[in-house]
Amino acid sequence: MKKVLIVVLCVVLACGVLVGCKSTDYNKAVEFQESGDYASALILYEGIDDYENYKDTAARVNECKTTIEAIEKYDVAKSGAEKKNTEIDAAIAEAKAFIAEGQIAIDDTLVPTLETTISEAKASKKSIVEMPSNADEIIAVSKELDKIDYSGVLTNLSDKKAALEKSIKQYALVNAPTEAYIIECLGDVQNVIDISAVTEDNDPNGNLNKAGGYTAQVYFSSDSVDQNDVYGSSI
Fold first, then answer.
1. Which of 43, 123, 190, 232 is deepest in the core (most CB within 10 A)?
2. Which of the 8 DSSP states describes residue 125?
3. How far apart are CA 220 and CA 197, in angstroms?
4. Running DSSP on this structure, what letter comes out for residue 96?
5. 26: Cβ–Cβ under 8 A, 6 or more apart, which residues?
6. Tens of pLDDT, residues 25-53
């Protein structure tokens, strides 16, 4: 009889210990979940014996899994959005630095045009929304972050900057162009048959590379002109 009683008491004590462990793990898991540590909470919840049938553990397990999955999606979306913001910041900085160089363009309207495009690019930039606590809200925010697309803005910024760069290069060609460039251009002109650049030794005006003079002087002849009627024996 005593042995039977002892066995019964042991079983009761064991059950009490198990119930106590379940309760302790459950309460601790709830603390983790409410503090936002869903991974730790999930481990404790799923470690509870027959957790599917213990209180609301099964529902809490689903909540933790859903929230963890939502957080993972948010992290990916946030990382992508940050990369896109870094890209547009770099493009804006590059365009601003180019304008700051103060180079002259043939078309002087292209500078304010690029400045306007820079302002539009700044206005298009999206802020990174902090992660909410609710799984559904986290998913919603992640979707909005995934929608961020600056491709059109970046293309517009690049096009306007390229147009200004081209105009600056065009100005450089007509503002004290190099001797080689003049000769190259004359070579494409119909009826030009001979080209010759002067040096400081044979410059008829004596102003080559002199203050107030010029950086290059190129003479050419054309078969449209009767060379017999032209003064001198050389170009």
1. 43
2. P
3. 9
4. H
5. 44, 45, 48, 54, 55, 57
6. 999 999 999 999 999 999 999 999 999 99
